[in-house]
Write a structure and sequence with these properties.
With about 270 residues, this protein is mainly β. The chain has 2 domains: about 160 residues, Beta-galactosidase, Chain A, domain 5; about 100 residues, Distorted Sandwich (Beta-galactosidase, Chain A, domain 5), CATH 2.70.98.10. It is built from 3 helices and 19 strands. It is globular. Bound molecules: 6-O-phosphono-alpha-D-glucopyranose. One of its GO terms (cellular component) is cytoplasm. It comes from Pycnoporus cinnabarinus. Belongs to the glucose-6-phosphate 1-epimerase family. One of its GO terms (molecular function) is glucose-6-phosphate 1-epimerase activity.
């Protein structure tokens, strides 16, 4: 049975060896293993901190947490009651259905609707559906956001982001193509400097020092390469991309980050 529903997660198994695990808590993909194009044994592609809580007590430090409806510290007045990165990553989602189950892909759908606790923070009629599809060499994550109110119900503003923690030797990776793209540098110490856009002039971006850059209107297709591997990320309808690596400087202050976890690189796609 390639889709196995367990108490706290669903496990996807592809006939060609790939697998994925999705926690119902946060709909967080906590494992994605796939063979490489040259046919190696399936390898873990995501980083999950050894200190991450997987029991629903706090968002998972690793994998692919879903960020919705606000990225970072909320700035929109409508988001004022939300925690950092919103509520999607720390609520329990419902398994809805198996969408597909064959060699082309193993795909499941999870959903999240407003609860009392969510309404207290974000009082809007929404329905989220999250479809995760596992192919032999590819993992696809699709978030569908629906406004379920009447046509007279006011619209709501949201941001969405897949907080991918990519497993790679962070000090050796190169990320392209971001040359000429403007970005906000969240590592700057002052509000004014953080709000002043910079332009990326490097041919390839690295994360050898503490990096927290929000690239705007980015190309949507990114190559992350290192001497012994590579991964390609394609984003659709997600116009921005965030590259974050806390390095020792800030990683050592994150309670649930394992020692040295920052040697693994993190790239996220945002809208
Ligand atoms: O600790 P978290 O709430 O999971 O956030 C982890 C990180 O997420 C994003 O990458 C932000 O750009 C960072 O500023 C933040 O530190």
């Amino acid at each position: 049975m390639p889709v196995i529903q367990k108490d706290d997660r669903v496990v996807l198994q592809h006939p060609k060896g790939a697998s994925a695990e999705i926690l119902y808590y946060g709909a967080t993909v906590i494992s994605w293993k796939s063979p490489s194009a040259t046919g190696s044994q399936p390898t873990e592609r995501l980083f999950v901190s050894g200190k991450a809580a997987l029991d629903g007590s706090k968002p998972v430090r690793g994998g692919i947490p879903v960020v919705f409806p606000a990225f970072g510290t909320p700035t929109h007045p409508d988001h004022a009651k939300l925690p950092q990165h919103g509520f999607a990553r720390n609520n329990v989602w419902t398994f809805t259905s198996t969408v597909m189950d064959n060699e082309a892909g193993v795909s499941v759908k999870l959903s999240l609707v407003p609860t009392e606790a969510i309404r207290a923070q974000f009082d809007h009629p929404f329905h989220l559906e999250y479809v995760v599809t596992l192919a032999e060499h590819q993992l696809t994550t699709d978030l569908h956001v629906q406004h379920t109110g009447l046509s007279t119900t006011p619209p709501f503003e949201f941001q969405a982001l897949f907080h991918n923690y990519i497993r790679a030797p962070a000090n050796e990776v190169h990320i392209t193509p971001l040359t000429g793209v403007s970005y906000y540098d969240k590592t700057e110490p002052t509000e004014q400097a953080r709000a002043t856009p910079k332009v990326e002039n490097r041919e390839s971006v690295d994360v050898q020092k503490y990096t927290d850059f929000v690239y705007e209107n980015a190309p949507g297709k990114y190559n992350i390469t290192w001497p012994s591997g590579a991964i390609e990320i394609r984003a659709k309808n997600l116009k921005d991309v965030v590259i974050w690596n806390p390095q020792q400087e800030t990683g050592s202050k994150i309670a649930d980050m394992e020692e040295g976890g920052w040697y693994v690189e993190h790239v996220m796609t945002e809208n």
